[in-house]
Structures are given as C-alpha cells and as structure tokens.
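Sat 14:20. Reprocessing the chain from the morning session after the first attempt stalled halfway. Input below, unchanged.
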Amino acid sequence: MRSSVSYILSHAPGESVMSHPDYTQEIQHHACLLVLVKGIGGVLKNFNKLWERIQKVNNIKVTDSSGQVRDIWVRYVRDYPVENNDWGDFQTHRRLLGLITLSKFTNQIELNEVCRVHESLKVKYSNTLFDSRAFMFGPGNNLKKPEQEPEIYSAFEDEKLFKEKSSLSDKMSIPSEQADSLSSSESFQRPSSSTTSYSLPEENFTTPSNFKTHAMFYGENDPVLDLEQHVAELINSLFWVVESKRLERSKEKLEKVSLLLAPFEKRDFVGLDMESRNNKKRCMGRVTKNLADLTLQSGLVAESLTQYHSSAEILKSVNDWLWLAAAKEGHCAASAILIYPNLRNSTPLQRNASLQENSPLKLKSLSLYQSNDPFRKFKMGSPQKSKVSSPVNPPSELTPSSSESIETSSRQSESEIADTESLSSDIEYQRSFLTPDLPSIPRQPQSQLHNQYLLSNEDIAEKYRKAIIHYSKYQNAGIIETEACFKAARIAVEQNNSLIASGFLQNVMFINLTLSEQEKIQRFDTLAELYKEIGFLRKAAFCQRLAATRHVSVNNPNPDWRRCYYLMLHSFPGHKLSLDPNYVIQHQVGWPVLQIQLLQEVVVAAKRMVHPALATRHMTFLLQTMWPHLTKHEQRDLAIQLQALSAQCEGGPVPLVLETGEVIPPANLTHVPHCSHFTPRPLPPARTPHLIKLKPQQGPFIFTPIHFGSLERKSKKDEGKMEYLWVEDDICEVQMKLTNPLPFELKVSNMRLLTSGIVFESIPETIILPPDSPTTVNLHGTPKEVGELQILGYSTHTLGVKSNCRLKNMPMPNKFPASFTLEVIPSLPTITIETEVAVSGNLMSNLESSGSVTNISLYNGESTECVIKITNTSNVPIEYLDLSIQSNMDSQLQTKVFQWNNDDLQSQLPIKPNNTASIVMNLYGEADFLDLGGCDNLFPNSLTSNYPSRVGSPVPNAHASLPTQSSNPQNSLSSGLLNRTSGSFRSTNSQTTSWSAPLSVMPPSRGRQIEAQFLLRYSGGGDAEHCRQSTLQVNLELLPSVSITHWDVLPAEIPSQLYLVLDVTNLTSEEIDLHYTENKHILIEGKESCRVPVPLDRCPFNVTPKSNNEDTTEIRSISTGSSNSLELMCSEHITQNVKLRWNLLQSNISGRASVKGITLSQAMIYIVRMSPLNWEVSINKQCMKPQEEYSCNAGECLSLGVSIGNHLARPLHKLCLSVQFYQDYNNGVLNYKLENSVATAGNNKVVLTTLEETAKAYHECTVVFLTPGEFKIDIQCSTTEPISEDPIKEENSSIIQPCAGEISHVWRFIPPVAISVTD
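Finished this time. Tokens:
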C-alpha cells in the first residue's frame, strides 16, 4: 500500500504533523462529539467513580426543530494534545468541543488556582471549544455557590442563532438511560444541596471575577446526584452548536467558500491561483466533505452518505488524494454505523446494560488457553503520554485446557472483559469481545436501508484500502494512515474477515514514523491486541515481544523491566507455550528455538526486576520443557545458571502468585536426574504376608486363560495395582534407577516418596550421582495406617530446586502408570530363630536368622534332639503358630526322621513381645540296614530305585557262605530266589519307583543328604487372615553305620527256637560294639564284617500279621503264591524280636539297627514258623532229637517210626505221609535215586483220610542201607485239600482252586534226619 509518491507530495520534516497517534480510535468515533474530562487541583479520592459515571452518559436523544429525534454520541478523553486539535478542519471528530473539570480545593487560594487552571484550559482549546462545565469539591458537605453568570461564547452572539437556540432548548432531552425525552430544560432540577446557600462561620468561598464558567459546587463527600444531568446539559448545548455549524455550512454558496487545509498544507497553496477551476472544485469538495463530517456528528448518518459520496467524486476529479482519502474513510464510517448500529454501544465499564449478545459474526481467537474470568482487562494510555499496555491475561488464560484449542480460533465474549489500571496512565478503557454464541452486533437488514450510497461489507474494506493508499502518498499523514489502518482492521474483525484485517495490520508495520519509545510500545501493543482478536497468535506474540524489547531498549530513558516481563509472559500462547510444564511436555508443539530464546529472555527480565523466585522458576521451566531440544553443552550451561539462581532463592514445588493475580504453576525437574525404572518392591520373604487359608482355585485346570465369573474376559488389568501386600509399621522399599545426564557429579538430597491415601512416613535419602552412569536407588518408608496406599512418585532436591516428580508426568519413552496402588494390612509380628542340637548330633548351639541353613550329621540309626527357640522381636503378640516340614523324602519316611509334639507348641501361645517359645524336634537317622552289595553297578546314582533280590549276593569283605544247612536244593535260600520270576524279593512302594521321587529307600552303605525346610507360619495382632512365614533350612547328613549284607535262619536245639544268622558290616572307621541280645555283644573293627547268630523264638502258628502295618503293602506287592501272608507274618515276627544296638567306642555315639523289611525264602519260612503238625521220629524205638545223627552199619535193619499230631482247631483231610531217602553232596546237588543203596520194607507213603483235631497218626516202616555213606531222610506230609491256616489267607483266598489230585500244601520234618552208614 505504501507508495513512493509520498515523498513527492509531502514536505520535509519540520512541517506541522500529527505527532501523537491515537490507537484507540474506532470507526464509530467519526460520529462522536469529543469532550475532555480533566482532573485539576488536589487529588479527588472519588475521581475514578465520577469518571465512570460520566462515561456512561455517552449518548442522548435530542429532538431537532423538525421534530426528528437524533442520537448524539460523545467520546470522552482524559487528555488531548493541541496538535491533534489542529486537524479539526480535516476531520471534525478530532475537534475538542467540550471541557469538564473535576477539581478539589480546601481554601480560597486553592479555589482561585483551580479557577485559573480551568480558564487556561479553555484558552488552550479556544479554537474549537464550545462549552465547559466545572465540578468543584470543597470542604464540608455544602458550599455557597457564588452568583456568576454563565459564560457566553461568540458563537451565540448572533441574535438569530441565539433565538433559535432559545426556541429549541425546550426540546432538549436527558440521556437515553434515564428517559426517552423531556419537553424542556426546566426538567433538570438541581438538588437543593447544590443550589442552596449556607453561611459557613469559618470561611466563605468566592470565585474570581474572571471565572466565567458554569460551575457546580459540592462537598467532598457529596454523592453528586445531578452529575449525569449536568453532563447531559453540556452535550445538549454542544449539539446545538454543531447543528448551527452544520446549518451555517450547508447554507454557504459553494462558489464562494474558502479552502480548508490540513495543517501541513498551508505552504502548498501559497501563491497559487485560487480562482482556477481545479482549485474551486478542490474548495467545493473539501467543504462538502467538512459538511458531511458535521452531518455525521449531528446524528444524520444517512444524509452524510450522500455528502461523502459527492465530496469524493469532486475531490477525485481534481486528484486531491489526501481529502479524497478522508472522504472515503468518512463514507466507510457512516456505512458501518448504519450496518452495525450497535457498534457504538460498547460503553466503557457498563458491564450489564451495554453488553450486546446478538452478533453472529464473531470468531473465537486462537489460543492455548481458555479464560474463566468474566472480564478481560485492557490498559490504555492517554495519547499525550502514549503509554498503552497490552491485555493482561488472568492466570487461567495461560493454563491449557485442551489440545483442540490450538486449532480453534474464537473471539472473546463481552462477558470475558476485565478492567485493570494502566501501568503508565490513569486512563481506563474497556472494549467488548464477542462470542459466536452470543453475538452483540446485529446487522440491519438491507431491506431497511434504501440509501443507494450505503456501502456493503466488501465495499467498506475496498474503500478503506484505497483511502490508506492515498494516505500513504503523504509522509506527514503517516499517523492518519496508521489510525486508518487500525480502524479498518477493527471493522474487518467485526466482519469476521481475518485475512483483510491482517493485511491492514501488516501495513502498519511498514509505515515509517518518527515515534518515541513509548509510542512504539503503544503501537506494538495495539497490533498484538488486534492480532489476538483475529486468531493470529504468533504475530501477536511477535508484536508483544517487540513491545517488551522497547520497554528496556537503550533509547528508553525509563526502562521498565516489569512491563517487559509481563509482555513476554503474555506472549507464551503465541509461541505455543503454556505456563504448565506438563502440558508443554505432553504436546510438544511450537518452535523450540524460539521458545528457548523467549524463556531465556523471561529469565533475564525476572532477574532485572529483582524477583529471584520467578527467575529460578522460569529457568527450571526451561530445563524441564526444552530438555530434549538442548545440546549437551546448553544443558550443562543452563544447569549451572539454575544453580546460581537458586542460590539467591531456592525453587520449590509451589505455585507463585504474581501481583496481577496470575499464578505460575510449579516446574519440577524430572530430567535431572533421569528416572528409567520405578517399582515398589515386595517385602523380604521372611516378612512377606501370606494367607492363612488359601482361596479355593476356580475351575478344574491348573492354569487357564479363562477368567471364570467375568463376562469381560479381555478387560484391561489395572497396571498400577500391586498383587503383593505391605504391612503397617514395616519398612517398605521402592526401587528406582537414576541417571545423571550432566557432565559433572550431581548431588540429589532429600529424596522421598510421594504418596496419597493412608499416612505414610517417608525416609529421606541423599545420593551423589556420577555422570552418565545408571545408579540404583532404594527409597524407604513406613505406612502408619491400614488401607490403600497410592505411590504417586518421588521428590528431589537438586541444583537448588525442590521437585515433586510424579509418575504421570514422567517424560517419554519411560511410561509409568499414574500411580502404584498397594494394600496395607495390620501389623504382623516378627521373630528370630535359634537352634540348639545335642553334642552327639555333632552341632552345638547356633543362632539362626530366617532363611539360614542348619547342618546336622547323624549316623544311620542314631537319634538326637534339636531345640528350636522362637523369639518375638516385635510389639505384636504371636497368637497363631504352625510348624510344617518340606523335604526330599516321602511323607512316611519324613515322619520317622522328624518328630515333634504340636500340642506342646500350641500350649506356649500367645508369645508376648520379647518372649521365647521352644520346639523340641527329635531327629532319627532312619535307614534300611539290609544292604545289597552288588547293586551299585545297576543303579550307581539312584537312591530311590527298586533293588533286585539282595539275598545270597556276594558282598565284599563278607564270608563266603552260610552253613551247609542251606545247601539242599529245596531248602537253600539261593535256589528259592532263582526260581522266583518277580522283579525282586522285596520292593519299595510301587508309587516311588521313579528315580526322581522323594527318598523312601535309603541304602546304608553310603552317606545320604536330606534337605528339609522347617516352615514356621505365625500371626498376631488384629489381622486374622494373614500370617508371616519363616523358613529354617536343615541339611541332615546321614552317615553309614552298620549294614546287614547276608542273612539266613537255622533251627535251634529245641523245636520252638531258631537262629537268625546275620553278616554285619561296620561301615565306619571306628571300632563298633554291636549288642545283638540283652547280654551278648561283639566288637567289630572299622570296615570289617562279622557273622552274628541271633537266637529267636519261632513264629507261633496262631499269630497273624498286623493288617495296619505300613509295610504290609510293601511285602504283599513282592510276594507271590500262597506264601505271601506267611512271609509277611514271619518278617514282622523277626523285625519285632531282633533288637540290634551299636555304639562307636571312640565317639561315644550310639544307635539302633533294624532288620525291617527282611525277605525270606520258602525254606526259611518253614524254619521260622512253627508247623501245625507235631512230629515225633524214632529209629529202632529211639526218639530222634533235632540235628542228632544216627550211626549204623550197612545191611542193618532199621525200624523208622513217624508220628504226627494235629494242632489245628479243625480236622485235616486227605493227608499223605511220605518218607524219602537222599544224599546231599554239599555242592548243591541232592541225589534221590537210591534204588541200589537203600531197601525199604513196608509203605513209604501212607494216605490219611481224616486227622481230627488233637488226634495223632503213626506210621512205621523198615529200611536197610546196602552201601555205606551219609544219608538223610526227608519226612513230609502233604494234602490235596485247600488249607486255610490263617484268617488273612481265608479272607483273601484265590478264586483259582487246585485241581483234583494236586498237592495243596506240604509240611516237612526239619531238620532232616541224618544217618551215617558204615561198613
């Protein structure tokens, strides 16, 4: 829009120019009468209230001579330069027409001075001033008003005009707010307080004789009820003067009018021919334009359109660009007033009556904030002082509301207007901002406006653009052009045309004016204000920043760092910044380089305004929000600067409230140090609470992804909810990993946990972090109540700044939940465990903490006691205590190794604080002393395998064999084993055959390790659902003592007894004393074996095995045929009657050994168990004793008699008694083919049909040995009837019955009768 012709059509500097721009002018002010309100004399305490009341009287309705009601509008100013008043001919709304003074005096001298100042003001503006009023406030409540005639101006000396005024004065009306109209001026009755004279005994005041102004006198504290009436009278009088001027101008002949000039044009027309055609047209155009201005001011807006149009056509024809521009501007103003009649209703400070809510043309301004304040405050200065401040946003405006607000442009509603006093001027001015929801400026329908010269919206903008172009041609009209740009921009804003408004504002930046620093500030403030209205926040921020720099420039004689700071602070939204650092970090919008520069300048401004707390806060904000955009060097430098700033004033996590009411939110350093890991830790295992009663598992599966009882199976789990529990009054821990990103050591002090919910006592920590090295830090605290605890984050004190680092505000990429939630249960007791083991157990007293290990060594068969002492180390009594054991053994073996009395334990409850309870644990080295010497090659590493039959197997260091009694093929134990087809002669429980199963069979030939855990579950206090669990690890080492490698049974000297012959091996390195009976013992050297005969009574025939014995199943599972129950019965009989005790002579350690689980062959069973038949054998009538050998000669006839008796309680049937002779070669071979060696006479086999109970049967035969040698007689009795010898067999008899003629059972006479035959 600027043109180079401005230097051609304008004069050099020094001409009369408008040097005081008025940036507050708006387009509707072209139709207003200008009145100056001035305070003179002493300070009037209620001046601002009076000023507000005067401002409200900005419009009155006057009925002219034709009966037409006119709206007369007034603009009040507090100061007005005379230079601008000189432009009154160019634009009549710049003329100062009225004067109102508000003064205070306390004595006559001050009154005289007030009158003098008032008169001097009239003289100052005498060229344009029409009328004035003086409101004077003196001491007391009422003052005597001197009788002074009102001042009469020359304008009223014309008798015609005076009469016309007098005839029309009766039609004056008061302001529209009070009444529509009044018939005459007499209706303005003054209150008696201002018109009645009182005699004051102290002093009577009189005005000077040269004081000719209409003055009103009041007491200092009077309410001045008639203020509005007097102001309305002044406006009314001003209107008639303007109206008379308009009528006078309209009646002038255009051919004889004089040329109107702008102040700088006076030299342009010197010496020119004013009678030329062009100059006459120039005069006519300018006078017509002047008449249009007067017409617009006198309330005839529609008529002024025609006059503006006519003047523009005339001026255009003579290329009078300056006045043509003024005509176009007036045309636009008149059209805008008609199209938007409520433009003029934005009455300052009239917040209720004048707020309009009907404009549909508003757009919300682009902002990062939303205001909750109903009013926004603007600060305007007087044109003379040129101090205009930018809007001061309330604190809520700088607080982000949503990310969408960045993209949304809106205009502020009138309800969001606020007032504040200017920092540089006492002028207050309010402007209205409108929302799209409640528009305030309704358009007049075009159907109601039939004026052909009424401009449309587009025409207004276009004519304003052309007018500005014409203004730009004149350098001396730069301020006129600037004001026109602002007025055009404001009307474009009302038209909701942001681009056009931006064009007008952009033109202001290129207008070259010689302005003072304050005027430059005022211009940038106004630009920023308008840019905000159209949503150009970045440009608004740019202008605010320029205004801030002007406040502290070197050319400014009075630098104002305070205003600089606030302007920069209010430019944050335009730079996409918010005062809330969390919002900035979350959204990361804007231009980081500009933001960093702005923040650094804000820090400098805060320092220069001597506010170290603000400087520290903004530097912390800079480090926190801009950290990712800073280089390593910048991070280091800014951190050092922050440390220096905080040395003056420490930063804290509390909001700072400025003197304007704005709130600066706290800024917390989460990058220094950087937290990469933050997790609450469960309590240590010894203090972890467990449920006393476990909840039943839902569903039949060990694991299932299905959530039973929930329809929303894919519901998201609360990531911050911890599954474990914390305990009241227990020290709890949160583990975090911190990294120092700075290149120097960083001291972080007073680190605490931030919590909510129940009371939590956090323990402070201090740590020094090395550069770039992750460090694990544990923060501790103690919950003091029961309930839900939320861990929100942690606090730090580093670089002189205290920060509350909340998890929800942690920077990416480490995403933490908003909080961690833990359940805190009531206090639980704590214990210490002490173990004491007897000396024989190779361990002395030992104090054990929970989870420690106790090592005990025992020999197989050794017993000892372990005393466990439990001490209550808390203040909570132990009311519940339970002991259980977990080990690598099966349950049966475990109960034999570990034994305690639970009743004794429960009787010691409750355990008071600092008291002790004891548990006596009996330990026994349970082992299987029957060893299989040759099994190592089969299962070298297994302790739980099923071993094959171990009877008769070769054992190292053992004797070669047992006595020859076992050499008979039918009686030998070895031969009996060879004939079995089962897996083993005896076996473990079938459920423990796996090699990885718990220990149940423990071979005695080598040491074994038993790992057991004593689980102590205890609770107390007010929590009956949870308990603690302490673990005592016990490693029990079982050392080999003795083992039995071979065994056999031999008949004793009497039929009721037998000998159990054992091969016992000493597996220790010491000499052992083995007691195998009460009175008999034997010494066995270390690693040596010894054969021991143990005398036993034979198993009675009527004794049955105990069915509830735990080894019954074990024996039955490996025995076959009819001998199953007999073997079990005989094995139990031997186990119960064999008592082996050993003693290590050197160590004085004693123990027991058992033959439990011994296996017997069929031949052994016959020896062990007493026969149901009573045998009596005689040779030649000589009764044979057991193991007695009979000698005879070959060929000698021998009489052999055999008698049997039935001991059963029932008869025996189908018996067959037989006698057989054989030779035993003692090498395992038995020869029964003796036809050539033995001859018998009589039956060697007799069948007995029935043998009654207690009955006897006798059989006799004769035998002759033909050859010498050693012979034996096998005497046996068999039956084909099923035998039910014991109840067990009878109850569990097989369903398979023997066939007819099949032998069911055989009884032998043992030992066999031996006969030695000689020649």
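Residues 674-695+716-825 form a domain with the Immunoglobulin-like fold (CATH 2.60.40.10).
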